[in-house]
Amino acid sequence: MDIKALNEELRGKTPKEIIEWAIAYGKKAVVTTNFRPYEAVILHACAEVKKDIPVIWCDSGYNTSNTYRHAEETIKQLDLNVKLYVPKQTAAHRDVVMGIPDINDPKHKEFTEQVKMEPFRRAMEEHKPDVWFTNLRKGQTAFRDSIDILSLSADGMLKVSPFYDWSDEDMDKYLAENNLGIETKYFDPTKVLGNRECGLHG
């Protein structure tokens, strides 16, 4: 696969056209979400092209009540085919034995493994997708600036970011035009700093 040539081919196409191309290209596609700000955009766009696309939600158990309400509203509004994955230990139990370690704490790696990496691997092993839709956009982190519309995951899966070149203003317009909600009080316990990579993409 010539990723560079494909990216050039897809540049200038609409997100819907990119999604349609990727659905046709792969055998099994999924979209992942954590219901952070602007997630309704990618979920709406993917469901418009493939209504029953599996929506993999790895819920760390540490989302804000606002995020959970937003998730429930979006799932219902878009009639999403959600596949929920949660850590094997509850947040309440982990709070007692570990808490939420600071980024410099040696336990932070184990924490991230428990609440994010293990549920994600479990989801991917069960669904075995060859196309993975994400809402990555340039300008979010240094790593995300280094990828493109199409990139390959560590294990060779095709990662597709249909809104890669879109600005926040573009996303706001999409939300308004499609009567979609947004929740800004989002908390990722593994990131601590807003400009850190979440772990799944780096």
UniProtKB/TrEMBL annotation:
Pathway participation: Sulfur metabolism; hydrogen sulfide biosynthesis; sulfite from sulfate
BP GO terms, sorted: sulfate assimilation, phosphoadenylyl sulfate reduction by phosphoadenylyl-sulfate reductase (thioredoxin)
Residue span(s) of domain Phosphoadenosine phosphosulphate reductase: 30-191
Organism of provenance: Marinifilum breve
An example Gene Ontology molecular-function term: phosphoadenylyl-sulfate reductase (thioredoxin) activity
Family indicated by similarity: Belongs to the PAPS reductase family. CysH subfamily.
SUPFAM superfamilies: Adenine nucleotide alpha hydrolases-like (SSF52402)
Annotated protein name in UniProt: Phosphoadenylylsulfate reductase
Pfam families, per database record: PAPS_reduct
A single Gene Ontology CC term: cytoplasm
PANTHER family documented for this protein: PHOSPHOADENOSINE PHOSPHOSULFATE REDUCTASE
